[in-house]
Design goal:
Its cofactor is Zn(2+). Its EC number is 3.2.2.23, 4.2.99.18. It comes from Paenibacillus aceris. By secondary structure, the protein is of the alpha+beta class. The protein has two domains: 122 residues, Alpha-Beta Barrel (N-terminal domain of MutM-like DNA repair proteins); 124 residues, Orthogonal Bundle (Helicase, Ruva Protein, domain 3). The protein has seven helices and ten strands. A four-stranded antiparallel sheet has the order 1-6-7-5. A four-stranded antiparallel sheet has the order 2-3-4-8. The two termini are 27 Å apart.
Length: 269
């Protein structure tokens, strides 16, 4: 599932590709991906423009010139492609937004959605999300504050979107590895020094992942050399049995609350 770095990569690239470009039409082959009737969705988009793109947690917010917001959550298996009909991957699309001879394709949007809201509605819908871990105002002191009273283990807590926004299976494991802490540890057992290591690891891993376009390697457009480049740089995620880059010990895969979890049992404690 796309996480914070993947959605931030989409935000940055799509801002360059489609911001302020006139929308010439749209098509919908899966009405369940929307929260409005397809006819209304197409009517509202045609002749409109996306004037700004925000990211909040794992969501993208496409701000329309007419005042509405398209709220996107790709969920498991969802991705996007921008290009001509000839360039389009041979995959089923659920929603397409047209920009003349180029199109923004929403692919694998079976569990995900592209909903249309008024701006105040979006703020209400996203109000339960936790802090953004890369916000300038999210200091170590604030991180310590959100840790207070948490009794679960590190893996489950990091992927809880009401705790922090945007971290999922991949980056929770990468952050724990970078900090040298087992993802199975209870938060209540972390020392202040370990909390600080975790905070620094969270920021460094997420920033590096954004720099290299995240780990999901489906290109956004023909010639895209950024999207998915972090996959080769993952230290533990989906690397079961491979030697740890720090100590050479084989990496372990387990399940934590039905989520796959990767770590080094030798150098994470």
């Amino acid at each position: 599932m796309p996480e914070l770095p993947e959605m931030e990569t989409y935000r940055q690239q799509l801002t360059r590709l489609i911001q302020n470009a006139p929308i010439t039409g749209a098509e919908v082959t899966r009405p369940k991906s929307l929260n409005v009737e397809p006819e209304r969705f197409i009517q509202k988009l045609t002749g409109n423009r996306i004037v700004h793109i925000d990211r909040r947690a794992k969501h993208l917010l496409f701000h329309l010139s007419s005042g509405e917001v398209l709220l996107l959550h790709l969920m498991l298996g969802g991705w996007m492609f921008f290009g001509t009909e000839e360039e389009k991957p041979d995959r089923t699309t659920q929603v397409v937004i047209h920009y003349g001879d180029k199109h923004l394709y929403f692919i694998g949007l079976r569990l995900g959605y592209l909903h249309m809201y008024a701006l105040p509605e979006v703020a209400t819908l996203l109000s339960k999300l936790g802090p953004e871990p890369l916000d300038a105002g999210f200091t170590f002191a604030r991180f310590q504050n959100v840790l207070k009273g948490k009794k679960g283990n590190l893996k489950v807590t990091l992927v809880d979107q009401s705790f922090l926004s945007g971290i999922g299976n991949c980056y929770s494991d990468e952050i724990c590895f970078s900090a040298g802490i087992l993802p199975l540890r209870k938060l209540s057992t972390l020392t202040e020094e370990e909390q600080h290591r975790l905070f620094l690891a969270m920021r460094s891993v997420l920033l590096e992942a954004i720099q290299y376009g995240g780990y999901i390697d489906e290109p956004l457009f023909v010639g895209d050399r950024l999207t998915g480049q972090f996959d080769a740089k993952c230290r533990v995620y989906d690397r079961e049995g491979e030697p740890c880059l720090r100590c050479g010990h084989p990496l372990v895969k387990t399940e934590v609350s039905s989520r796959k979890c990767f770590y080094c049992a030798n150098c994470q404690s």
